[in-house]
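F.,

This is the one I mentioned.
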């Protein structure tokens, strides 16, 4: 792809053209930062969710999954701290009238310094060739060290100011760094103000008796309030986890970058309950386990990195992001947070109910500590989709657009074609579909020349194309074409299912 910006535009248009993502209520000109998943998008999303659920729930004997309601008792959000502290620090530019997250402006400034580091590394790599040692260069080159030090100082100061609610200092930092409005270039800023991100709604028929509710801004609280229920009914012993996937809502002010930051999105979260004092061990364990899960999908290890938080959320004593290299740079994909006993304790205080575990080995009851893993399903979708979309130049100089989705996640696993629409070939193709559809999502396609059909399926992300031709009528064999290599093999109809299972099995991918 020409450059990252062009690639990102291509991702958005491709997602629409191939039935993955549409803007919400598009016939009314859409709703900002809200999207609908179309026929292929819904499948890809479901498959990512399933891949996560299986690895979390089926592959861990001490993790169970639940599905809590989106609407919760309003005290939940008082206890969790979201009513008082789920805020974004916002700043307006007086000239452009545009609103920004103050911390994002500062982080973007630091990202620019990071680009300078990358440039230094590239330059040195060119100069030293094979003898180049990147780690050593980064840890000794004075210019790189200077840049890194500058980033550290800025982020530390921002983290401290935000933690102390010193918003005047956040503004001062923006002014000292001479950060300008990215659109107008103006440096004429208002003060920084906090803005709560929760969507409110009402329960009840009349205005006088209605109760104010919130749409949940994270799925995690549905797990915390069910801690005792699940622990008792599932006879769970510490350490154990509760997993959940579901919608969350945030009134994001600076919603942008397609499905990266949405107002209605889906999370896949797991809260892991541990003995107090053992949380850092589990925090490290889950950091590594989650990174390995990402790597299992083959998107390239170099496209992931950890980012340890300077500014901790109100509930955490350690936090890190797994960042992914999106078309617009490295950004947060998943968070791993050591949440201490903050949530369970707060719910104990507000509800008056005990949320404790009796530990037979220690012979005492305690409020467990929590390590959570939290990933946005839509963001994971964007990561996979944007990395899989490729433009390839072939041996004969022609190009093809191919969506190299991991086969385990692909919406349609195989397309079955009759070579021509006559001579009984369509009937054989439909019979093959009837057999395969028990195990796989497969489709039939007879329109256009076979070459064109291959290209259409390449662009849609279908890993296999199965073609029925005249030879099939004689010897019951078909050609199976592989999307990524474009190789074709002749195999018996009776062997298709096995061949596909070889490539599309959870064991193969997750192990
Ligand atoms: N329970 C912890 C929690 O919610 P978070 O870092 O606010 O932590 C977790 O969110 C993940 O949810 C993020 O890493 C991101 O993938 C996803 N996420 C958060 N806000 C989002 C948004 N507005 N749109 C899409 N995904 C979002």
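My design for it:
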């Amino acid at each position: 792809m020409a450059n990252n910006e062009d690639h990102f535009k291509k991702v958005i248009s491709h997602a629409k053209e191939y039935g993955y993502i549409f803007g919400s209520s598009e016939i009314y000109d859409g709703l900002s930062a809200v999207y609908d998943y179309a026929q292929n998008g819904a499948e890809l999303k479901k498959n990512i969710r399933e891949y996560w659920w299986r690895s979390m729930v089926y592959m861990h004997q001490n993790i169970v999954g639940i599905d809590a309601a989106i609407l919760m008792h309003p005290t939940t959000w008082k206890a969790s701290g979201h009513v008082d502290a789920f805020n974004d620090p916002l700043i307006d530019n007086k000239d452009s009238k545009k609103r920004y997250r103050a911390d994002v402006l500062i982080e973007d400034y630091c990202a620019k310094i990071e680009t300078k580091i990358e440039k230094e590394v590239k330059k040195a790599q060119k100069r030293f060739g094979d003898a180049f040692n990147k780690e050593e260069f980064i840890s000794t080159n004075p210019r790189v060290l200077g840049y890194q030090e500058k980033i550290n100082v800025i982020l530390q100061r921002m983290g401290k100011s935000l933690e102390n609610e010193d918003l005047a200092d956040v503004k001062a930092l923006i002014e000292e760094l001479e950060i300008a409005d990215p659109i107008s270039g103006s440096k004429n800023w208002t003060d920084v103000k906090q803005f709560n991100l929760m969507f409110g709604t009402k329960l009840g028929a009349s205005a006088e008796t209605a109760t104010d509710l919130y749409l949940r801004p994270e799925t995690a609280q549905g797990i915390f309030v069910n801690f005792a229920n699940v622990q008792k009914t599932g006879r769970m012993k510490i350490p154990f986890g509760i997993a959940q996937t579901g919608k969350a809502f945030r009134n994001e002010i600076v919603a942008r970058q397609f499905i990266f930051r949405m107002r209605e999105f889906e999370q896949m979260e797991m809260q892991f309950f541990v003995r107090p004092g053992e949380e850092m061990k589990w925090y490290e364990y889950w950091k590594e386990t989650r990174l390995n899960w990402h790597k299992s999908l083959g998107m390239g290890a170099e496209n992931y990195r950890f980012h340890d938080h300077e500014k901790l959320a109100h509930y955490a004593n350690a936090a890190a992001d797994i960042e992914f290299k999106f078309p617009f740079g490295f950004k947060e994909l998943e968070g791993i947070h050591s949440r201490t006993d903050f949530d369970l304790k707060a719910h104990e205080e507000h509800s008056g109910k005990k949320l404790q575990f009796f530990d037979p080995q220690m012979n005492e009851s305690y409020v467990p500590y929590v390590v959570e893993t939290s990933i946005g399903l839509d963001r994971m979708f964007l990561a996979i989709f944007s990395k899989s979309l490729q433009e390839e130049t072939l041996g004969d100089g022609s190009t093809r657009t191919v969506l190299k989705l991991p086969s385990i996640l692909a919406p349609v696993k195989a397309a079955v074609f009759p070579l021509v629409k006559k001579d009984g070939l369509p009937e054989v193709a439909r019979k093959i579909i009837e057999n395969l559809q028990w195990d796989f999502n497969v489709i039939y396609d007879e329109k256009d020349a076979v070459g064109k059909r291959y290209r259409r399926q390449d662009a849609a992300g279908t890993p296999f194309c199965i073609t029925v031709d005249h030879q099939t009528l004689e010897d019951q064999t078909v050609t199976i074409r592989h999307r990524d290599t474009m190789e074709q093999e002749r195999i018996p109809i009776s062997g298709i299912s096995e061949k596909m299972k070889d490539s599309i099995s959870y064991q193969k991918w997750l192990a």
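The CA atoms of residues 463 and 483 lie 5 Å apart.

Talk soon.
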